[in-house]
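INFO worker-7 received task bundle
INFO bundle size: 2
INFO processing item 0
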Amino acid sequence: MLLKTYITNPRTFIHREQQNPDITRALVSMVSLVGFLVVAQLTGHSDIGVYGGLAAELISWARVTGSFAQRVWVMILGAIAVAAASFLGTIAGGNMFAAMAFLLVVAFLSGMARGLGDHGLTLGTLAVILFLLSLFGPNTIAVAEKRAIAVLIGGSWAIVLRVIILWLIKPQLPYDIAISKPWTVCADMMGMVPQLSGIDEKEAENQLNEQETKLRIAINELLPYLRKGDNKIVSVRRELLKVVRASSRFGSTAMALFYEMNEVSKHERLGFIVPTLKNTFQALELAASTVGHYLMSRSIEDEELLKIRIQRSENTIVILKKRLEAANLSLYDKVEVLKVISMFESSIGYLNTALTWAERIDEKRSQLSFITHFQPVISIRSQWKNTLSEFTAESELFRHSLRLALIATIGIFLYYTLEIPRGYWISLTIMVVLQPDFSSTRLKAWDRVLGTLGGVFAASILMHYVQFHYVIFIVIAVCLFLFFYFQQRNYAIAVFFLTIELVAMIDLTLPYEWHIGLYRMMNTVVGGIIAVGATYLLWPKWEHVKLGHYLSMAIMANKNYLDQVGYELKEKTGFHSRLIGLRRKAEVSNLNMADAFKRIKYEPGANKERLKLAEDLGFYNAKLTREITSFGAILPGISKEFNYPITYTLIDESTNLLNDLAEAIENDQLICVRHSFTRFFIEIENKVLKIRESNPSNDPQKQKDIERQLIDLDLIRSQLDKITTEIAAMCNISGNIELQAIETN
């Protein structure tokens, strides 16, 4: 797939690789590791090659964000911390009590480093790995210094390859990536809508959730550039805010269009217009993708191409309108397509907003110094401050770190007291298997143990028959790249290749013994069992006792979201920025709820029947979020003269029902919420009939105004019908749910 993308459109491949450099990162990590190993071998320091090589590999792989200056600073601190862990492991290796005491500290700090983000997790794990490897003798100060220096050199080598070179070539790259990435994600969302309309709805929901998560992450990475407190003479904060808001609105419109396309596909009479709709999706996808290219390259060619593609999108909408008018359909048949057209036109507006404000950013660039004006408002000090606030007994991160430290230390105790060859693999397995909650540990333990067992077996055979170091270097490089490739595709296979790489590296300078592989496999199994048992026995975090809370929070988020949409409709404000924040809260609540459901499935003591009913309720709540988003997306196209109080009353009724439902669930009450939507729609239908009969003289101008009113009212009625349908479904199944806290035995 990657090769196909590279051949057919190398420019797009490069653009996406700049934004999400997984392949580049894998290649840099591979070069960092193998390069260090080769140099160590050539200079006669192969005994420390594994320490510097691992440091070079994982420090270059760590996902460090922020400006290049901040990345260098974080990686330097990480390299120093890892070198200190290696030093402590070496001097403590000859004494069991010293090793246990030092590991208790190193493993605890490693667990707390998870709070710093992905790079904290990677660097913390690396520190423990090198500490455990360093326990192997000789355990002298001289050897400890030698290993620590190797780690620092390996870390420096990684910093040069991963950051310094790019910093010198393109110093503004972090900023360019941050501002362009949301639009690239939005383009993908718009392009996938026609494809998803033909597959299973739940599968489509999952794919949409993945894209929404990517968009949320991309926007969060841009937020540091938007924070207040900027007293600079020249600032682009306002321009950036406009561009990122446009991307968020474009993305929410793309998600809403998925549901509208599903409705269009249900009308057989509208089949003739589906190809034109798909052409419009493709045109909007290309235009949004070009916004990302333009924000990254800032070239005149991309700017002109963006204008052309926006114009092409507008032309496809004109063609769409003409085809719809020529079909001579009833308003009932046309209303679904009219909603889609309204969202298409809103999308064009967001593209033009991005173009306008991106041009203004370019106008200011000549007045800006990147070093002083384009740095995000974020600091390492603030990250550590947030992490230090987790040092409380109530913190899940603190409890996880303490559990990790205690269990890893028990692994070391077993290693020393039973004199197990390569016994540090028990603690090593605990480090990579143990997660903050029982379900995640149980889910990952099998893949990790299975992949590790297979990798240990394959690596043991490899080390037995391959005697040439340079052949092993090639194997290490290939396995490292395959680990990165499979990491997001099949975790067990990824762990398989990672284990081969680790075993090959660790055994490069050690005499091979066939039974060592067997010991490694046994140690891996023991470590996996200990890790799963620890999450069950030590301060477990049971999600099923908070099932009602997750549901209540998600429903209340939808209630607030719908309430704000109703306010925007009544006040004729269009698409206010407050909707973006409430939409994000609703979607985050849904994602948190869905993740909690996945974890609860594997928890002992969870009631499966109640969980199934709760999942059904959550499914309709997630659909409700999408329908509210669709409602918000059509608001800019509604006439300012629209004023039908019955629609506002219906929205109030809907929000009141959601509030009652959320409160009942939160308070662990027997839920019995009923709706009365039918009377509202009868009144709306009567209003439509009166409007149709309000022009007996057939005045052309008045008839045009009436048609406009009918279109607006039908658009609102149609969307409210979908919203109330989801709420009615939630009310109907709520009578079967008694979401009380489940006592654990």
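INFO item 0 finished
INFO processing item 1
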Amino acid sequence: MSEVIVPERTSVSPAPIVAWTPLGENAILVRSACDAIPAKVPVAVDGNPRNRAQTMVLSWRRPGAEPLAATGFLCLAPAPSVDNSGTGALLIGRPGRPLRLILAAKPQPLQTFLSELAEDAGQAFPSVVDGLLEVLLTGAPNPRRLRAVAMLLQTVARPGGFVEVMGALEGDGIFLQGWTSDFAAGRLKLLIAHGGLSPAHLEAGTFERGDLGEGARGFFGLLEDCQVQQPGEIERLYFRGSDGWRALEVYERYVLLEPITVPGHLRDGLARGTAPQTTTDRLRRASQRFDGRDTVCLLEEPVRAGIDSVTVVEDTGVLIIGWLFDPERRVDAVTLRSGGQSCAVDRLWTRVQRPDVTAAFMEDPRFGPALAARRNSHGFIVFAPKLLPEPGQPLHLAFEVQGTGPAFLPLEPNRAQARRALERVLGLLDPRSSTANAVVERQIAPALQAAEIVPPRAVETLDVGPFDAEAPLGLVIGLDHRQRELSALFALLAMDPEVRPLPIAIAAPSESFDRVGAEARRLARFYGLSVRLVAVEGVEDACDALEAGVRACRFQTVVLLSGAAQIRMPGWLGRLERAYRARGGQCVASPTLLFEDDSIRWAGAWLEGEGASRRIANRFVGYPLDAVGNLGPMEVAAGASECCVLSRAAFIEVGGFARNYFTTAEKGLDLCLKLRMAGSPSLWVPDVEVYAVDDIETAAPHAGALARLADRTSFDRRWALAISNMKG
């Protein structure tokens, strides 16, 4: 047939008024009748032949109608102008004479339009609807078209089976299982009713079921490219069978699978069913997911793994200690997973010697020959930052093994606070080994620095005497968990006329508050001191207690005194305060700190070296006290937090002590550098002398060297660049 041309001019003649309904913003559905019309015609909008489009026409015979209206038809047309500037006419080109139609003044609701269509089409309605569905589903779908499709499908779709089992597969769609007699295995287009209607694909396999009638088969597969996220949203599924549209109903008592069990159901389906190779490959890849089992132990390859401990460090990440036996290097990657989170731990871990693993497999005939090289580096320690198990999502390791795909190892984590969890790891390491240093630098230090540790918090205060929390000057004493002798300290405070009238805040861990508080109350009353006792939660060391004590009062100027410090002579505070005032209160004034044998523990922290090699060092450590001579107050790189005078406002402004260190040494150094950067440099006052007990800060004393290495590593990462550019 030659192309039908819509003429530029058409004589005006009476035209029928036709029913129509909108389908989206740019199209309408029109119903009318004529004597004859082809399956594809051009249509001009508002009588303008230049505004035209090709459209498919669906027609049916109308028995008993007049010859000029013997053929009913349905077509899509471009929507008329929104601003009503058009004529409201459609011009349809057809052989012979074009057909001119006048759109009704108001569109019909879709349901009304379809009802009248069914009445007019009679027995042809199902085939008309089937063709209309094909037209509506061609091209990009829009909500209004899909709503029309949903109404049509409810009318014409015949029963096609049931969905009996469903389950979500994280990131890969929804698993379906049921029965049908109307589609073959492979990739199938579907429409899903879920309140609305949306397209999807089903990668499906089929299997025989003895409980079904002739021609019906079981099916299983994955629903993909789907807007539906949860199985419970699915109401019905429509698909095009060999003889028209069919509906898969969701069985009222369908089985809802836990996501972790879905891979196993896919594997069962593949084992008993059939599908085209592309579908089989797709479903097999999806089935290779963690299902809660240890599948590493089932491998035929010489690969085994074990876990010693898994700790979820609060708000920080996951710390894992374990081993991987892989003498032939079959494992290409190891990934930690929980829900949608993952971390490639084999790129981060530190391998450690595990001769016990070697010994365990040496006598096993399956693995012994692979151990000819006698490698012992089977162990690993790794910190996975910012990966926190999601509620209801299991934590596991995935091993990519050459030739077999992934294998899985489920993990059962404990939870712990960052510092305590990492201290336990330090206790497992030999501080003399290079491996221990690598673990500290690559795992422990980054984990501690990444930790979001809750700051210490004052939970209770108790005042003894007329305590003035708003005093211009006040003393804050911070105690850690170790037992301290308070009687000598209180006696020395009471004997010093410059200290005796000051308000004194004593901050102690809440766990030891009863014991410390009772002793402090007795001594405060005996000596007539004004004391506030502060019970603190979250104390790891004296710096934590000092911080809570500072925040529990509102002194303008605070004197920090660690529980490790011991006063050596009266007048110490007056001289420190005068040096502080001489600098306008814009500094941190610290005394000389001594060991108990009167040798120097701290006499100023000084900048040494130049550029990238510049560092902060304590020059006089171990020297006799006479080595400093009769020096006057002088500015240094950093002060000593064990004993100092500083502005409370400055302390609060810089955020107080950092909690991401094991020892108080780096905490104090970090604080003083923050204050220096904020305009409060450190001042050393040599003629004021205070004892400071050299305590081991970690829970495992033999790990003290590693704790100091971790702190130094963390400190250098944070401050090396700033120190290299400091003047002085």
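INFO item 1 finished
INFO post-check item 1: Residues 1-12, 696-700 have pLDDT under 50 and may be disordered.
INFO post-check item 1: The first helix runs from residue 110 to 121.
INFO worker-7 idle
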